[in-house]
């Protein structure tokens, strides 16, 4: 990329500008807007995420220091706190939600398969992909966020996510109030034919599992305690770690009505948990160890939730309205996808956190981003090759 372009502009060039403008027109989101458009607001909120701004006042102060650069950065001529606050409350959140979804699609294409273990298994088993489905809650103070439905004395929002385990990027994210049950959105997820979907036991909803099966996709879900079933056959050896490999069917009337067919029950002993874990699946070709391995890799979605909560601003909000909160979360997901796409494009060998740390301090610099990444990686390699000097706490043999 050109050395005459700001790093922030080079990064934002990965955004689908034409698609964003289509979304703005679709939702008539710039109606009666003279200066601070949806695009301006997106640029400001992305900059705030990437530089870890704590509040609108912090954003205003940071941008004021670079006032002469704002127009070239696509943020308008000037940005003040009241303008950002009004935009947070009134800009159409659907624009940012649909942009985040588009960015997840682009990041998935750019990333390629990273999880080598599952990638090889998926190729052998001819799977279209491996996806983990879960949700994470962000608590809100009811005194400030009065619109949130109280549960156990707290308000909150819930981030329902389908995570592409093989590519290590989210495939779908939906923000709702925390009162919404996980099962409610099982029928809203797009299930790919030949894909494998891994759920926790909170997602045991037999009609939805039947819908996945009818669509030609596969699922792995932990069996709920108390779910009654009839064992039709057992090919397990009762030897650890695979305790059982059974063909079963539900005996409960309502469960059987939702899923009248047969299922496979894999009973796997987890040494870490010191317990036998029961997995239900509609795939009868996988080995029991592959079923357990696929479920174990569901942990990657938990790491994703931890990452965005720790390294992006979704625990502290720039506004108290539902519109402001939801918009901020969707912009955070867009920022995550931007970093993932940049890392894939420049073949960055480090972690997403390292790349974001580098970007956060050079966004307003005019340098070639690819050259900066190359120098950073060379420096990291040189540092790794440096001798480790003894310290006071080293144990040394004389």
Automatic annotation (TrEMBL):
GO biological process, one term: DNA transposition
Alphabetized UniProt keyword annotations: DNA recombination, DNA-binding, Membrane, Transmembrane, Transmembrane helix, Transposition
Entry-linked Pfam families: DDE_Tnp_1, DUF4372
InterPro entries xrefs: DUF4372, RNaseH-like_sf, Transpos_IS4, Transposase_11
tRNA-binding as UniProt keyword: no
Residue ranges annotated for the DUF4372 domain, each copy included: 5-75
GO MF annotation terms: DNA binding; transposase activity
Segments traversing the membrane: 325-346
SUPFAM superfamilies linked to this entry: Ribonuclease H-like (SSF53098)
NCBIfam families listed in its UniProt record: transpos_IS4_1 (NF033592)
Family: Belongs to the transposase 11 family.
This protein's name: IS4 family transposase
Gene source species: Candidatus Prevotella avicola
